[in-house]
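Sequence only, no structure available. Ideas?
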Amino acid sequence: MAQPPVLSLTDIQLTFGGKPVFEGVTLSIGPNERAVLVGRNGAGKSTLMKVIAGRIDPDEGDVWRQPGTHAVYLSQEPDLSGFDSLLDFAVQDLPAISAEDRHLAEAELMAMGLDPSADPAKLSGGQKRRAALARAFAADPDILLLDEPTNHLDIPAIEQLEARLQGFHGALLMVSHDRRFLEKISSSCFWLRQGKVRRFHQGYAKFDDWAAEVEAEEEKALDRLNTQLKAEQRWLERGVTARRKRNQGRLRKVMDMRAERQSRKTGLNEIRATSDMTLETAEGSGKRVIEARGISKTFDTPAGKLPVVQELNLRIQRGDRLGLVGPNGAGKSTLIKLLLGEIEPDTGSVKLGTNLEIAYLDQNRARLDPNDTLWQALAPEGGDQIVVRGTPRHVASYAQDFLFKSEQLRQPVSALSGGERNRLLLAIALAKPSNLLVLDEPTNDLDMETLDLLEDMLAEYDGTLILVSHDRAFLDGVVTSCLSPVGDGKWVETPGGYSDAARQLKEIKGSRASGTDTGGSSSRASGKSSKPAAKSQNKLSFKDKHRLEELDKLMPKLQKQIEALEAELADPALFNKNPDRFHKASSELETTRDTLEEAEMEWLELEEKRESLEG
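Reply:
I predicted one. C-alpha cells follow.
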C-alpha cells in the first residue's frame, strides 16, 4: 500500500516581472523518495526549491507538509557569515539546541573532515559546502532539499556524500548537474519545463530516454496541428472574412490554433535552444604534442619537502584525450603548467611539439577582467565584430550561440553567474582555432544541456585534449586515458575513462597495502576549491595570505608531533607495558599524519594561487 506524501504542491503559480515562472505546478514526494528536479538553466529549479522550502511564497496555490515533519534546505550558495565558529553555524537547523544536539553537529563536522572550532570566514568553497552538508545531516530532517550539493567538491568528497545519502531515511529532493551522482542516488524525476512539472517514476539513469519520447510525441502533436492549421488556412483563403458574423467563431478558432502552434513551437525551441559550440581545428600539429621525460617538482614547506611530481615520463600524441584526475590540492594545475612549459621542472625535461596552437580554459577564470563588459570580453579590440575560427561574426549573434541575451552584453563580467562565466570563457576559447585544447574544470556550474553539447563538441574535435574535471560521467564520455596521483608525487596513466581509472587505482591501493608496490593513492577529500576571482588582483587576498601564514606555523608543529609519536611507538616494550597508550598513540599518529597531509595540500594550493597571481 502506497504511503501518503510528506510534501505536496498544488497549482503553484509564481510571477516575476510580469512573466510567469510557474503555472499550475503540482507534485508530491513520498516519505522515502529520492527525487531529482531536472530542467535547463533559467527554468526556475532553484526558485521552485525555495518555494518548497518556504523561502518564497507563491502567488497562488498551496504548499503542504505532513504535520510534524522537519525540512532542511541547502542552498546553492551557503551563507556562513555572522558565525564565530563552524559549530555555531552547524547547529542552526536543529529543532532544539541542547548539549547533546551540539555534540551531534560536532560529530557531523568532524565526519566531513572539518574542525568545529574553525572560523567560517576562512573556509574554501569546498569546505563551506561540506559544512553546509554537515549542518543539514545534523538536523536529521524528514525532508532534505539539496540545491547543487556537489558544487566545489572533488570526486572523493562526492563519493562520500553519495554513501551518506544512500543511507538517509527521509525524503530527498535535489538539483544537480552531476549526472553520475544523480544516477546513483535518485529513484524518481521531476521535469520542470515551460513553467510546468512532469513526473517520471524512475531514476535519472533512464530520464534521457523518457524525455526523448516525450519530445517525440510533442513533435507528432505539432505536426498534426500544422496539418489541421493548413486546412483551416485554405478555408480562409476561399473568401471567409471577419465581417461575416456567422464565421467569427471559426475564425477565432484559427487564431487560437495559431497561438497554440506558436506556444508548442516555442516550447520545442526552448529545448533545442543550445550553445552552438563547434570547435575548428587549426593546422595539424606534429605527431608528438608533449613529451615529458623524468620531470619532478617539489615545493619547500616549513614541514619539509612536498613532492608534487616525481620522475614522470609521459608522451602525449596528436589526437590523445588525457584526463587529469585527483583530489583538490593534488597538484593538477601545477602539472598542467609543467606540461605547457609555463613553469620549469626541478629535474627532467618537457618538449612541446611543432605547430602547436593552444587554447587554454583557466580554472580560476583569471583571464576574465571583472570590469569588462561581456561585449568587451568577446571583442577586446573593439567594434561589433569578432573573428570566429577565421569568419567574422557579429558579437551579439555569437553571444547568442552561447545562450547570452542581447541585454547582457553591456553587463560587467562581475555580474555574471559562475555558469555564465564558464560559458563566456568557452565562447572565447572556442573562437580561436587550436590543435591543443586545455580545459581546467570546464564543467563547473554548467547545466546538463550545455554539458552534453560540450561533450559532443569534444567528441568531434580533431586536435589533442588535456582535461581536468571532477565530473565522472563527463570524463567517461570524453577522455581516452587518465593521469592520477598515487602518492609521494607519483602519477599513473591508465587507459580509458574515469571508471576504468578508478578500478585500476583500487588494484594499486591493494598492491601497496600488501607491500608489493611502492606507489600510493590519495583518495581523501581535501574539500578545497579554487573559487572564481571576485576582482582583478595580482596578489593573494588578506584571508588567503593569513591562512598561508597559519599553515607555515602549523606544519612544523605537526611534523614534530609525528616525530615524537613515532619515537614513542618505536619503544618495543610499550605495547606490553601500556597497551591502551600504544593504541592511543597509534591513532594519534595516523590522525596527525592525515592532518599534515591536508595542511600540505592546502599550502600547495595557496602557493599555486600565489604564483598564478604574481606570474
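The longest helix spans residues 579-614.
Hope that gets you unstuck.
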